[in-house]
Amino acid sequence: MPDYIKPIYNAVLNFDIDLVKKLVSEAIDKGIDPIEIMNEGLSKAIVEIGDKFGREEIFLVELMVAADACKAGVEIVKKNILDSEIKAEKPKGVIVIGTVEGDIHNIGKDILKTLLETSGFEIHDIGVDQPADNFIKKAVSIDAKLIGSSALLTTTSPNQKEIEKKLQEAGMKGKIKTIIGGAATNSEWAKEIGADFYASTATEGVKIIKNYFKGE
Amino acid sequence: MRAKLEVLNRQELDDIYQTAIDILEKIGTNIEDDEIIKLLKDNGCRVGENKIVYIPENVIEKCLKTTPRGKINIAGRDNSKDMVVDGNQKYPYIISHVLMNYYDELNNNYRTITKEDMKRFITISDYLDTISGVWMCTLMPDFKKMYSFYEYELAIRNTTKPVCISSFEPDSIPPAYELAEAIVGGKEELMKRPLTVAFCEISPLTWNKYGCDMLKATAKWGIQPVITVETPMGDTGPATFAGNIAQKIAELLSGLVIVQLLQEGLPVFFVVPLETFDMRTAQICLASRTDYVYGCAVGQIEEYLNIPFFSPVSPDSKLLDMQEAYELGFSLLPRILSGNKGIVIHGLDQTHAINNELLIMMDEMILSGRRMIDGIDVNKETLAFDALKDVAGKMDGDRRNGHFLNHKHTLKWFTKEWVPRRDAVIDKYRREKWIEAGSKSFLQRANEKVEEILASHKPEPLPKDIEGKIEEIYKKYNIPKV
Hints:
CATH superfamily of the domain at 70-234 and 263-374 in chain B: Trimethylamine methyltransferase-like
CATH superfamily of the largest domain in chain A: Cobalamin-binding domain
Radius of gyration of chain B: 25 Å
CATH architecture of the domain at 70-234 and 263-374 in chain B: Alpha-Beta Barrel
Oligomer: heterodimer
Number of strands of chain A: 5
CATH topology of the largest domain in chain A: Rossmann fold
Number of domains of chain A: 2
Largest interface: A-B, 24 and 18 residues
CATH class of the domain at 70-234 and 263-374 in chain B: Alpha Beta
Distance between the termini of chain A: 31 Å
Number of strands of chain B: 21
Shape of chain A: elongated
C-alpha cells in the first residue's frame, strides 16, 4: 500500500470518522487519484474491519463506526469523480433486506447490513414495516439474488411466509433465494414457510450468505 | 464516586487499637531469644517471669514513628512494575502465591509442584496485567534446603514483576540477598527497592526461636520484613472479631517494635489472614464466612494503622468447582471494596495448591472488582443527553430509527464503562453458538487461554551479568544445582 494511502487506511481501522474525512479531502486536494483512495485505502480497510469483527477482535460498535467512517470517505471520493469512473470491485452479491410489514425493529437488520457491506456485498435496504410485494419488486428491479427479511414479533412473522407466497406467484421462487431472521423466527419456521436459509444472528447470516454466493 | 466499604466507625477502630496496646502492655509477649529480650528491656520494656516482655505504649509509639508509615516498595527486576504502596494507588495490588502442589483438574492430577509447574504459573502471572507480582513459598522437596534462594531465583527468571519470598531458614537469606542486590544494582539501590521476606509470629503472643532468628536476619541484612500472624477464631485467637483483630494488631506491633529496635527505619508490612477454627471438623478454615466479614474491614484497619496490611484469599475447596468460585469471589470482593492495598491469592485446597486456569478466573474477577471501585461517573458527557438527542433525532419518515450502536458516544464510553474482555474466556454466546464452539466449560476455555499465553509470552530473559552473579552465588555458598 502506498505511503500516501496508508494513513487513510489506518484512520478507518482506528474508527476515526473525522480523521478519515480530513485525510481523504487532503489527499484529493494533493491530486491523489480518488479511485486509488477508494480501492486501496477505504475498501481494503473496511474488508479488514469486517474480518477483524468476524475473528471477534473488535466490537460491534467499532465495526459500525468504522463502516460509517468508510462511507463518509467514499462520499467525498464520489463527489470528485464521475460515476463512469468508479471501477470499484464488482460486489460479491446483490441483496435486498428489510423488516416485514407491521414490524418496526431495525437494529438487527442494520447490523446485518453493515456486516454485509463490509464484506463486499451490495445491499439495498428497503427499511422497516415493508409489505411482501416491496421486497420482490425491489429484488426484481435490481436483479438481486437474495431477499433477507427480519421479523421480531410472532404477530409479524407470518409476513415472511407472505414473501415466499408472492415469490411463487411471480415465478421467482428458487431464482431469488430467501433468508429469514429475527427474534420471532427459528429454523423450524424457515422450513415450514419454505425459506431457503435461516440465521439466528447477524454474524451467522453473513456466514450463510457468503457461502451461498460462493456457490453462485 | 468511588465505591468504598466501611463496617467499623472511628470509635470502634479506636477501641480495637487501644485493646491491642493494652494486650502488649498488660498481657505481654513471650520471646524465646535472650538477645531480643535484652534489647527490649534496654529500650524501656518490662521483662517478667518466663521470658514474658511487656511493651509499654510509649515504646510502641516511638517505634511507629521510626517506621516509614504507609510507604513500602516491593521490587522486582523491572522497577516500573514495582508495587509502590504509598496511598496513591487506585486498585489493590494482587499477588499470586506459588504453593507446594499443583492441581491439574483437567487431567485429575494433584501433584507435588515441579520446577516446570512453577515456571508456567509464574509466566502466566508475568503476562496478566491484573497480577502485580508473585510470592514464593513452595518447599519443593527436590530443593531439600535453601528453599528461599532457589524459589527466588526461579521466580526472577520468569517474571520481571516484584517477587516476595517466605522463609523458614535464616541461612537462605544471604544468597537471596546477594541475588536481590545484583538485580536492583547495588546495596544502596537495595535500600530503596528491598528484598521482601515473610515469616510468622506464633499465636497467642509468642516470638519463638525461628521467628526471632528471622527478625534478626532481616534486620541485619536490611531486608523488608513481612510479619504474618495467624489467630484462628476459637483456636489461638478469640472467637469474636473485635478481640481477634485486636490480638492480631498486638502481635503485629510486637514484631514491628522488635524490627525498629533492631534496625531503625526499616520498612515493614503485614500479611494477615483471618481464619476460623471449624468446631465440626477440628480444621482451620480460611475462606469462610468469618473471612468475608474480615475482608469488609481489612481496608479500614490498614488505613487506621497506616501500615500496609496485605490479606490472603485462600479458598478451602479441593476442586475448581462451585465452592471454589464461591469462596474466591466472596473472599476477594470485600477486600477490593474495603480498600485493601494488597491481596495475596492462594489457589485452592487451604493454601496447598495452585492452578493455572484459576489465574484466568482471577483475572476476570479482578477486572470486575476494579470496575466496581471506579464506581459511576456523573457528568455532562456521561449523562449522554446530547447523544440521546442525536440518536432520537434520526428519522425514517415519521418514525425514529436511530440507535447507539454506531454512535461515537458508544465508541468512546462502551469500553470505559463496561471494560469488556476481548477474548471469549467468559462465555457470552447464545446456546447454539456455544454448542458450535464445542460446548466448552469455563475450565476448558481458560485452559485454552493458558496455553495461548504460554505459547506466545516469553518473560524477559535475565541479563548476562545476573546469570554470572547467580553462578558465583552457587559457588560461594556451595549450593547444589537442582
